């Protein structure tokens, strides 16, 4: 322990995170690198929704990385960010949706579906959301391999 005198944290500044700042989530297109995430141009269209010390969670569309950013400065459409953490997933062999034999897509009243690319057959239908559809696709592909 140091000899420094510390002031206890006052209750008014000790807040639930959900009341103190906002956390945004974005999936960025393939080709945007982690270094690009600090370029203010990316945030011009959403700057009015962002305030200092908000967080932005970023996932690359191709699944190659995930990053968490802290907004350091906002003035008009000028937004400065700092990368707090970034995880690159380059060890995984990614198959683009265009190459995959099966893919997920929303199909009107059938909801999210797992679809066979070669003939458009809906292999699994009526899935409530994309994340669940992706899991269903992974499970289906595992079952095909066994």
Describe the 3D structure.
It is built from two helices and seven strands, in the order H-E-E-E-E-E-E-E-H. The termini are far apart. It is elongated. The mean pLDDT is 87. The strands form two sheets. The chain has a four-stranded mixed β-sheet, with no helix packed on it. It has a three-stranded antiparallel β-sheet with strand order 5-6-7, covered by helices on one side. It is α+β, with helices and mostly antiparallel strands. Helices cover 14% and strands 34% of the residues. The longest helix is centred in the last third of the chain and has 16 residues, at 130-145.
Question: How do the helices and strands line up, and which of them pair or pack?
Answer:
Blueprint: H1 17-20, E1 23-28, E2 55-60, E3 65-75, E4 78-88, E5 102-106, E6 112-116, E7 122-127, H2 130-145
Parallel strand pairs: 1-2
Antiparallel strand pairs: 2-3, 3-4, 5-6, 6-7
């Amino acid at each position: 322990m140091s000899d420094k005198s510390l002031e206890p944290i006052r209750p008014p500044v000790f807040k639930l995170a959900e009341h103190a700042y906002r956390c945004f989530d974005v999936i960025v297109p393939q080709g945007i690198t982690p270094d690009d995430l600090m370029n203010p141009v990316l945030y011009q269209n959403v700057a009015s929704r962002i305030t200092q010390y908000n967080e932005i969670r970023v996932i690359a569309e191709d699944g190659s990385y995930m990053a968490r950013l802290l907004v350091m400065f906002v003035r008009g459409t000028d937004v400065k960010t700092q990368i707090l953490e970034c995880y690159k997933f380059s060890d995984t062999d990614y198959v683009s949706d265009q190459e995959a034999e099966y893919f997920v897509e929303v199909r009107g009243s059938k909801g999210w579906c797992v679809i066979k690319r070669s003939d458009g057959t809906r292999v699994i239908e009526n899935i409530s959301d994309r994340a669940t559809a992706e899991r269903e696709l992974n499970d289906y592909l595992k079952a095909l391999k066994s």
